[in-house]
Specification:
CATH architecture of the largest domain in chain A: Orthogonal Bundle
CATH class of the largest domain in chain A: Mainly Alpha
Oligomer: heterodimer
Low-confidence stretches of chain B: none
Structural class of chain B: mainly alpha
Largest sheet of chain A: 5 strands, antiparallel
Largest interface: A-B, 49 and 51 residues
Strand content of chain B: under 5%
Structural class of chain A: alpha+beta
Mean pLDDT of chain A: 84
Order of helices and strands of chain A: HHHEEEEEEEHHEEHHHHHHHHHH
Number of helices of chain B: 13
Number of helices of chain A: 15
CATH topology of the largest domain in chain A: MetI-like fold
Radius of gyration of chain A: 32 Å
Strand content of chain A: 15-25%
Order of helices and strands of chain B: HHHHHHHHHHHHH
Largest sheet of chain B: none
Number of strands of chain A: 9
Shape of chain A: elongated
Strand order of the largest sheet of chain A: 2-3-8-5-6
Mean pLDDT of chain B: 76
Number of domains of chain A: 2
Number of strands of chain B: 0
């Protein structure tokens, strides 16, 4: 193993298909991490476990791209936040109207709709919501006055489609429909064809008018949410969280955990083993017995106890994983050091009176570097899956949502037996792909270092 | 080996010790208060509430002292006592969890769960090793063939999948899409029922398939690598030249020489699977040691945590020991102590 130069390793590595595959997957993952860090603000990520952040998202929505493969399109969740604003003043009365136009091209009714706004006004302005449907029918949904206030105030409200007054208004306009409205919910009425109860496709316009008398009113915030059953690239989970955010942010975290644990434990094991092997005799004996003790400890139960009793902070977790990760490397590097120790040039260096630390770091450790790189690559997936496993048991750091935690939530809400595949598949795939990248790299290196395997 | 066991115990106790103390003390306080409120005449015999409180506090202190809880948990006396008790397999009573039959004795709980875990994981390990050894020997003797390539790539791919995730996928596939197997692995009928065994085996199928699927690739790859090394040895070459059939060489001579490391790893993976059971059992809801451990952790049932860790460690150490013995048995060079 000592006769391979770095240049040779590089040459061999670029020849191996597996190595190239591993490196390219890794490159893609790093790109994803950079994209995640740059595009998704860290506030979104740190608010992962705060339900308030996700309130305007749909519950367990299927990924939006599924519609491409379906004949009956599932209504997509729409969050409209850029209305066309018109302000008219005629005499004393001023009207602010916000217009939300959207194309509804699905074969099912939306789940609901929510209009959330905050209005700045004085007095008691009148809020009116009107829908203009693709067939030209105009439906009045609501006309209500905002709470009276003498001075200027800001009023924030969410108007839900379940609002009883919307339904009453719609029932009053039942002559526009050819079927009995019965107990249908308001979104089922609004998005229905006039003759029979089927979804009506086309362009809808929601018109929100705020009538004020003798005052300057404003609507600084105005969002219309058409609740659907499909959302985004990755869909959402039971707690309305956008899974794409969690998956993207999981990438840098997993890479960080895996690489830090692997480098730390391999470095530790390497130095420990080489030191024991080089010193020999009593030191070797004592160090190796200690090594055996750690080796004999059942790792997972101890990791669980540690994270329950001490802390589940992600940084401590990295430390714990390192404690159980270095043992094997130490054993192998000790025996390698024993071999190298007998070489002539080590004797020569010793006779020249070089310091022991210098001999270890200058002459022995560099020989072990190829092995070290291979074992780093091989221990990354182990670290990632162990962390994911701990997170899966619900012992993860709640301030850093990892893939394991997404799967934990999926398991808690019974995603597997409810058939919510978009909640289970992607996180596991990401874990597996990340692991695979490092396994590929490690195996490619391993084959170069141990020529025996090549045949 | 005994030392390792002791160190494990010591570590476990020192990790959970302070928590255990608080819980025990709270238990005493609760007990004393309950006893006093049961008898209203005690409360009536005091003039003021301060006096009453003082009396209660005295009672609590007394009780704590008689139980030896006034000393900190790390005092040598208490640790010694705890460890002595554990050595005699006396784990005390569980704080929250009970066995299916309603007993809260930790030993009984563990004895009830342990056979199920052994049933599932030993069966899985045996199937895995049989498939693995066969496939590994086959692909190791034909390096570069289609079988070899499939086995190797399957091993590499399956090694990076977490078992529990595959478990979730299997539940999705077989419990939701096709509805062949139940999603929860706990049989719905009580264990006294005669059909219980059949029901248990039926519920075991899905976890078993999952574990085997993920496990055998790595095994085959391992065996293959040993075989590749051995097939290059001179004695195999000479056997080939002698004209002994290839099948015979592989299964008689090569496998026999690959046996020592394989058996060692088999023994280790058997016990290792017990530890790895925690997550797998949590996914499938298999009523064994792993799930017990997980439940104990979530409600912080310390006697069970300590007991289960102890049992797991004992199993682990025993299998390391057996592996060592077997190695000596299969490899005569070790036996003579050279």
């Amino acid at each position: 193993m000592s006769s391979i130069s770095p240049q040779e390793i590089k040459n061999e590595f670029t020849k191996s298909k597996m190595g190239i595959a591993g490196i390219s997957i890794l490159a893609i993952l790093i790109t994803i991490s950079i994209v995640a860090i740059v595009t998704i603000p860290s506030e979104t990520f740190s608010g992962w476990n705060n339900p308030g952040n996700w309130i305007s998202y749909p519950k367990v929505a299927i990924p939006g791209w599924v519609n491409l493969f379906l004949i009956e399109k599932i209504p997509e969740h729409k969050i409209l936040d850029e209305p066309i604003e018109k302000i008219e003043t005629s005499g004393q009365i001023s009207v602010i109207s916000h217009q939300f136009g959207f194309n509804f091209d699905y074969d099912d009714f939306p789940n609901d709709f929510i209009y959330e706004f905050s209005a700045k006004y004085s007095g008691a302005p009148l809020l009116e919501i009107v829908v203009i449907r693709p067939d030209g029918v105009q439906l009045e949904l609501l006309s209500t006055s905002l709470p009276n206030s003498k001075s200027e105030t800001i009023h924030t409200e969410r108007i839900f489609s379940t609002d009883e007054s919307i339904r009453k208004k719609l029932v009053l306009q039942s002559n526009k429909f050819g079927f009995s409205l019965g107990k249908l919910s308001s979104e089922d009425i609004i998005f229905s064809q006039a003759e029979n109860h089927q979804p009506l496709k086309g362009n809808y316009v929601y018109l929100i008018n705020l009538y004020g008398v003798e005052s300057q009113n404003e609507i600084p915030k105005s969002n219309l949410i058409i609740g659907g059953k499909a959302f985004g690239i990755m869909g959402t989970d039971e707690l309305r969280r956008d899974l794409a955010v969690g998956l993207l942010w999981g990438t840098p975290l997993a890479l960080f955990i895996g690489i830090v644990v692997a480098i730390a434990s391999v470095t530790m094991g390497l130095i420990y083993g080489v030191y024991a092997g080089y010193k020999g005799k009593k030191t070797d004996e004592v160090l190796m017995r200690f090594n055996d003790v750690i080796y004999a400890l059942p790792a997972l139960p101890f990791l669980i106890i540690l994270s329950v009793t001490i802390s589940n902070s992600i940084f401590l977790m990295i430390g714990f994983l390192t404690i159980f990760g270095w043992v094997g490397v130490a054993k192998v590097s000790r025996s390698m050091a024993l071999q190298i120790k007998t070489r002539g040039y080590i004797d020569a260096a010793e006779m020249m009176g070089q310091k022991k630390s210098k001999i270890i770091f200058r002459h022995i450790l560099p020989q072990l570097l190829p092995y070290a790189f291979a074992s780093i690559a091989i221990s990354v997936p182990a670290a990632i899956t162990t962390e994911a496993g701990l997170s899966f048991l619900g012992l993860g750091d709640p301030s850093f949502p990892t893939w394991g935690q997404i799967l934990h939530d999926a398991n808690v809400y019974g995603a597997a037996s409810r058939g919510l595949w978009w909640w289970i598949m992607p996180p596991g795939m990401m874990i597996a792909i990340t692991g695979l990248a490092f396994v590929f790299i490690g195996n490619a290196l391993d084959v170069i270092i141990n020529p025996k395997l090549r045949r | 080996m005994f030392g390792v066991l002791m160190i494990t115990l010591l570590l476990t106790i020192s990790l959970v010790g302070s928590n255990m103390d608080t819980i025990l003390k709270q238990g005493v306080v609760f007990q004393v208060r309950a006893e006093i409120t049961e008898d209203p005449s005690i409360a009536n015999s005091f003039a003021s509430s301060e006096e009453f409180e003082e009396f209660v506090q005295n009672q609590i202190d007394q009780r704590i002292e008689t139980l030896g809880l006034d000393e900190p948990w790390y005092s040598p006396q208490r640790i010694g006592l705890t460890m002595y008790k554990i050595l005699l397999l006396d784990f005390g009573n569980a704080t929250f969890l009970t066995s299916d039959s309603g007993s809260s004795d930790v030993k009984e709980i563990i004895l009830e769960k342990l056979p199920r875990t052994i049933l599932l994981f030993t069966t899985a390990t045996i199937i895995i090793s049989v498939i693995g050894i066969f496939l590994g020997a086959l692909s190791g003797s034909k390096v570069g063939s289609v079988i070899d390539k499939i086995t190797s790539s399957f091993a590499i791919i399956s090694s990076s999948f977490p078992v529990w995730w595959i478990g979730m996928l299997m539940i999705f596939l077989f419990a939701f899409v096709y509805q062949i197997f139940p999603a929860r692995a706990t049989p719905p009928i009580p264990s006294s029922d005669p059909d219980y065994i059949i029901s248990l085996l039926y519920h075991m199928t899905l976890p078993l398939i999952t574990i085997v699927m993920i496990g055998f690739g790595a095994w085959a790859y391992l065996v293959r690598n040993f075989m590749v090394g051995i097939m290059q040895e001179d004695f195999i070459m000479s056997k080939k030249i002698m004209g002994i059939s290839k099948k015979k060489i592989i299964y008689r001579h090569a496998l026999k020489n690959a046996a020592p490391p394989i058996v060692t790893i088999l023994a280790l993976s058997l016990s290792g699977s017990l530890g790895g059971a925690i997550i797998t059992e949590a996914v499938f809801d298999w009523p064994g040691m792993g799930r017990l451990y997980f439940e104990a952790i979530t409600v912080m049932d310390l006697p069970i945590i300590i007991g289960a860790t102890y049992i797991l460690t004992v199993f682990f150490l025993i299998s390391i020991f057996i592996a060592d013995l077997l190695y000596g048995y299969f490899d005569p060079r070790v036996r003579t102590g050279q």
